[in-house]
Amino acid sequence: MLRVTKIFRFETAHAIFGYCGSCKNIHGHSYVLHVTVQQANPNEGFLDGTGFVMDFKDLKRIVKAQVVDKMDHCIILSEAYLAQNPHLGSLENLDIWPIEPTAENILLKVKSAIEGAMPPEVKLCRLKLYETADSYAEWEA
């Protein structure tokens, strides 16, 4: 199976409501996102046409528009967190979610955003979101 991966970086802050550890407080991460795609209908031979599974420029354009531009330098808080901390509602670049913004849920939001923007001949097959240098959430089709 032939796949290509592009890596993206963005800075985002979040807090986890109801968590007993330090992640209950607003804090930030330097996220690293690996996006892997493959042909929707793969074959075992050489690639036709341009010879690309997907042009890296096109993948960059999609992920930048759907993820990086929206999440970079924003604060993601859940509705529950904001209900307990209403004074935070006036923060700039605040993104309010109905769910807790854990690495796992952020990754699922990323998946949904990217899948909807992919051309039909390309399939999103793997995502890996590093929250720290040695901790990540991973999704695979």
TrEMBL record:
Its cofactor is Zn(2+). Its EC number is 4.1.2.50. Gene3D superfamilies: 6-pyruvoyl tetrahydropterin synthase/QueD. Transmembrane segments: none annotated. Pathway: Purine metabolism; 7-cyano-7-deazaguanine biosynthesis. GO terms for molecular function: 6-carboxytetrahydropterin synthase activity; metal ion binding. It catalyses: 7,8-dihydroneopterin 3'-triphosphate + H2O = 6-carboxy-5,6,7,8-tetrahydropterin + triphosphate + acetaldehyde + 2 H(+). It is an enzyme of class 4 (lyase). Pfam families: PTPS. InterPro entries: 6-PTP_synth/QueD (IPR007115), 6-PTP_synth/QueD_sf (IPR038418). Keywords: Lyase, Metal-binding, Zinc. PANTHER family: 6-PYRUVOYL TETRAHYDROBIOPTERIN SYNTHASE, PYRUVOYL TETRAHYDROBIOPTERIN SYNTHASE. Belongs to the PTPS family. QueD subfamily. This is 6-carboxy-5,6,7,8-tetrahydropterin synthase. It comes from Phnomibacter ginsenosidimutans.
